[in-house]
Amino acid sequence: MPVSGSPAPVEVDTLIVGAGFAGLGLAIRLQRERRGSYLVLERANDVGGTWRDNVYPGVACDIPSHLYSFSFRPNPDWSQFYSPGGEILRYLQDAARDEGILPRLRFGAELTEARWDADGECWEVSTTAGAFRGRTLVVATGRLSEKRVPDIEGLGTFGGGVLHSSEWPDELELAGRRVGLVGTGASAVQLLPALAERAAGVVVFQRSAPYVVPRRNTMFSSADRAALAADPEAAQALRRTLFWEAEAGFTARIRATSPLSRLGATAADHLRAQVPDARLREALTPDYEIGCKRVLLSDDYYPSLSRPGVELEPSAVVRVDRSGVIAASGHRHELDLLILATGFTSTEPPIAGRVRGRDELLLADAWAGGMVAYNSTAVAGFPNLFVIDGPNASLGHNSAVHMIETQIGFVLEALDHLSATGASTLEPTRTAQDAYVRELDRRAATTVWTSGGCRSWYVDERSGRLTLLWPDTASAFREEAGRFEPGDFVRRLAGGGVAG
Ligand code: NAP
């Protein structure tokens, strides 16, 4: 019951949290297939998720655009093989507008609490833009939405500016400033060339060296684009080719020897060809197995490190004071601006601290030993809840959009099952969830991610379990996790009876 004076919650069949690729993709399917009422709750004021937030110079996707887009909404107009972030954001904005999703979006609506109402058999959701009630709740908040700021002594005392790569301001004066770039992941590698060109000096703080392979981006000519627009089958064929080429890269992650050594040789050749200085080359040589962290694609990262004014500090930032940064090596660097390209809190999503399932169980408590879900999407103890792009649903070698579409398919099958059976709630059994997680752990044990000698955000620090990545191919994910098996769920009828 609404508290007297506060408006009654808005009621829909499906509440989706987040308007990035996952939330919009599900909304488009619900809208096109007229599958009942839904709303998308988005804390920001635009769609696009990580592509709306990450606007640092050089931001782009390192998965080919014709693969990193919805299969059900191909875009013949991608300008490049690997398109820049702004173009991906426009693709998502156009999709929301053209598919008629905008009236179903609630902007400025940050979820503050979601609670399963066992009597009403629905989710009660509080947001900064009012209260909502939904029979089904889909968490589509992504894994790259909450910045990770490392716990560095004295960071707050730094006299210059400190900013995270995902909070790039509209205008940032770099000329005349000495900039510290913390991190050497995908964001830092894309960002460095612009910093090296514009700033008075750059120090790159490298806690561990990444493997970098050639990117070799190419532009699509207007003739290429016209040909793809004229022949939709050609665009689909291109997507299929890109998909299977990316799948071939998976064998490297499970240590099939020859692809692994081929990838390693490509990275070593790239380093040798682009860094003439032997000492710098040595400092840039990773000390763990290739594939343990995301393999980065860049043609201008290494050359930027060799530019005058750019310095590699081959150790972590350990302390910051008013005017400088002290590295683990003991070196001190006087700086005017510190840019943290330190990634995201992907394994411990803050939203899990705001979602309460059956018997008041907090999702963050259910995930205290690391994120788990049945088929990477449904969670025992949380009726009618689906999580997209959460536990074991990411990839290092192929398109995240393929994974998201697989999970959307799973959610739609579950919703169909609810309608077809007249049941009011669905919840995976703990036995089915445990069996799924055990199988993932078994597969992960032989991969480079768990024993390749690196520390990465794919692995939960609390348990040492691989909780972010799906430890197999993208096609295996669709085959195994994309299918809804009614036998693995407890179904309740309206009023509380358990269906057979
Ligand atoms: P990230 O891969 O998590 O990298 C964070 C970096 O910060 C790491 O190099 C880490 O060092 C470093 N770091 C943390 N604390 C440090 C300290 N005290 N001193 C020095 N270094 C420190 O984050 P990201 O680069 O933002 O990328 C996150 C994910 O976003 C990517 O894996 C990818 O999925 C996605 N992304 C994708 C693209 C794309 O093109 N598709 C582009 C950008 C981002 P260690 O390596 O030693 O941990």
Q: Please, could you describe this protein's structure?
A:
It is a single chain. By secondary structure, the protein is α/β, with parallel strands linked by helices. It has 15 helices and 20 strands. The strands form five sheets. Strands 1, 2, 3, 4, 5, 6, 17 and 18 form an eight-stranded mixed beta sheet that branches. Strands 7-16-8-9-12 form a five-stranded parallel beta sheet, covered by helices on one side. β5 (122-127) and β6 (130-139) form a beta hairpin. The protein starts with 9 loop residues before the first strand and ends in a 7-residue tail after the last strand. The model has no long low-confidence stretch (mean pLDDT 94). It binds NADP nicotinamide-adenine-dinucleotide phosphate. NADP nicotinamide-adenine-dinucleotide phosphate binds at residues 60-63, 144, 150, 152, 165, 182-188, 190, 205, 207-208, 294, 316-317, 341-344, 455, 457. NADP nicotinamide-adenine-dinucleotide phosphate binds next to α4.
Q: Count of helices?
A: 15
Q: Level of helix content?
A: 25-40%
Shape: globular
Rg: 23 Å
Low-pLDDT regions: none
Main beta sheet: strand number and arrangement? 8 strands, mixed
Structural class based on helices, strands and sheet pairing: alpha/beta
On the 0-100 scale, what is the average pLDDT? 94
Distance linking N and C termini: 32 Å
- Report the β-strand fraction as a percent range: 15-25%
Ligand roster: NADP nicotinamide-adenine-dinucleotide phosphate
Tally of strands: 20
